Amino acid sequence: MLSPLLVLGLTWLIAEFYLFSTVFNALAKRWGEGQALLSMTLSVILSALVGIKLIRAQGVKMLIQTQKRLAQGAPPSEDLLDGVLVALGGLALVVPGYASDILGLIVIVFPFVRRAIARRLSKRFSQGLQQGHFRVYQYSAGVQSPRAGGNSEIIDVDAVEKRDPVQLP
After folding, report:
1. Residue 145 and residue 138 in contact, taking contact as beta carbons nearer than 8 Å
2. Taking a C-beta distance cutoff of 8 angstroms, is the pair 147, 136 a contact?
3. Contact 146, 135 (CB under 8 A)
4. Which helix (H) or strand (E) holds 17?
5. Dist. CA 149–CA 34, nearest whole Å
6. Which residues touch 66 (CB under 8 Å, ≥6 apart)?
7. In a designed cystine with 69, which of 29, 74, 141, 169 is the match (CB 3.0 to 4.6 A)?
8. What's the CA dihedral at 72, 76, 77, 78 to 10 degrees?
9. 12: part of which helix (H) or strand (E)?
């Protein structure tokens, strides 16, 4: 039995190959094979550069917004998730291929798409927490303590390397 993730990945690769060959054939008929190859290569490089720029800009923006919300005592969940989705859209632009570029642009350009994805992810995550599929750990003062179930006894151990004493002459 094939996993759904494998099927999705193979389908995505086939779609990318199909789009590449379709675009190449259309450009080759119009400009010739050499010019078509050059323009396709430049478009892939340009989309990757735009994606890298978006990831950097969104990372800084997300960090500033998160710090502001935390300073106000508010949880950064909405801003953080929106920033992560824009960064993932930028990552999709970095990945070579026209299908990933289209998907990345849709996520970046249309905020209602990001909100819909964010609502769906939040709903699935909270359902997973309620059903016990996820565990949330709080990290404070160097000790991890499970907040949602699990063993509450945690033993913090530091490893010490035992060495033979050095003999001085």
Report:
1. yes
2. yes
3. yes
4. helix 4-31
5. 62
6. 76, 79, 80, 83
7. 74
8. 90
9. helix 4-31
C-alpha to C-alpha distance for 99 and 105, rounded to whole angstroms: 10
Give the number of other CB atoms < 10 A from CB of residue 104.
24
Q: What is the CA radius of gyration of the chain?
A: 24
| Model confidence at 140: pLDDT above 60 | no
Q: How far apart are CA 41 and CA 38, in angstroms?
A: 5
The identity of residue 45, as a single letter, is I
From residue 2, give the alpha-carbon distance in Å to each of 8, 9, 12: 10, 11, 15
Decide: 121 and 85 in contact? Cβ < 8 Å. no
Q: Parse the chain into domains and list their residue ranges.
A: 14-133
Least confident of 52-56, 103-107, 138-142: 138-142
Average pLDDT rounded to a whole number, residues 20-32:
92
Which residue stretches of 32-141 are H helix?
Answer: 33-71, 77-94, 98-109, 111-131
Split at pLDDT 50, 70, 90, the class of 130 is confident
Burial degree of 86 (CB within 10 A; 0-12, 13-18, 19+) = buried
CA-based nearest residue to 118, from 109, 107, 133:
107
User: Using CA atoms, how far apart are residues 22 and 115, in angstroms rounded to an integer?
Assistant: 32
